[in-house]
Design a protein that fits this description.
This protein is α/β, with parallel strands linked by helices. Helices cover 38% and strands 14% of the residues. It has one domain: Rossmann fold (3-Layer(aba) Sandwich). The chain is built from 7 helices and 6 strands. Bound molecules: flavin-adenine dinucleotide.
């Protein structure tokens, strides 16, 4: 498999960075090809603007999706956006590694989605969900939290994690056509001791060693 890991954490020695390097090492050892987009290390600009494009459709009024359609026709995506789209298109499996920030994606990763999920190129023209342009590929969220596991059960003080992840798993990944694998969640790594953190990394590696045969989950419209 070709695997793309997108890492969104500002600290190279963070637990998230360790999750990403564990994934890369394990998948390579299993014979897969791994490419990592380390967004902070790359200084990825998450702000959508005319800088998304080298082409111009309407110089008077910026409508991003119209510019995306035009850029798709003329090959007009900016090099840093084109490079990320190409990596995503080439991946059989995409893993997003991130800390949960304000019940969502860190801004740098949300901005990566804003710029890389582009109308005409990766979705649109009737190609969404089951007919999405990215169908046939799989994606997986690997995240960490500050809060403990019970806080993310239904009825817990933060509420059901599945509901928190639904805008990402349904609104972004399934919308593009990805088959979504169950999220990998490490609750509260900063509160854990060394042995618990090592156990979490080992569990992640064990799962990844067999990831090729894993079945997707339903991310429905509930
Ligand atoms: P780190 O603090 O980087 O790492 C934890 C520990 O693991 C460190 O001691 C590190 O040295 C150690 N470590 C690293 N690598 C290894 C290794 N290989 N082996 C063993 N130990 C290792 N939390 C929520 O639950 N909900 C929220 O909505 C939320 N919103 C937030 C918003 C913001 C803006 C911020 C900054 C935080 C928020 N948090 C929230 C907390 C956040 O989710 C956690 O702080 C984060 O998930 C912890 O992961 P980390 O990689 O940053 O941990």
């Amino acid at each position: 498999m070709n695997v793309l890991i997108v890492l969104a954490h500002p600290e190279p020695r963070s637990f998230n960075a360790s999750m990403a390097s564990t994934a890369a090492r394990t998948l390579r050892a299993a014979g897969h090809t791994v490419v990592t987009s380390d967004l902070y290390a790359a200084g990825f600009d998450p702000v959508s603007s005319r800088r998304n494009f080298t082409s111009i459709h309407d110089p008077e009024y910026l409508k991003l999706q119209a510019e995306e359609l035009h850029a798709t026709e003329v090959g007009g995506f900016a090099p840093e956006v084109e490079a990320e789209i190409a990596k995503m298109e080439a991946a059989d499996l995409m893993v997003w590694q991130f800390p949960l920030w304000w019940f969502g994606l860190p801004a740098i990763l949300k901005g990566w989605v804003d710029r890389v999920f582009a109308m005409g190129r990766t979705y649109g023209g009737g190609h969404i969900y089951e007919t999405g342009k990215i169908r046939g590929r799989r994606a997986l969220l690997s995240l960490t939290t500050g809060g403990p596991a019970p806080a993310y059960q239904p009825g817990g003080f933060n509420g059901d994690l599945d509901a928190i992840l639904r805008p990402i798993q349904r609104g972004m990944l399934a919308f593009e056509g990805f088959s979504v694998l169950a999220p990998q969640v490490v609750f509260g790594p900063a509160r854990a001791d060394e042995a618990q953190r090592k156990a979490s990394l080992d569990a992640w590696a064990r799962r990844l060693a067999a990831i090729e045969s894993e079945a997707p989950i339903e991310v429905g419209t509930y």
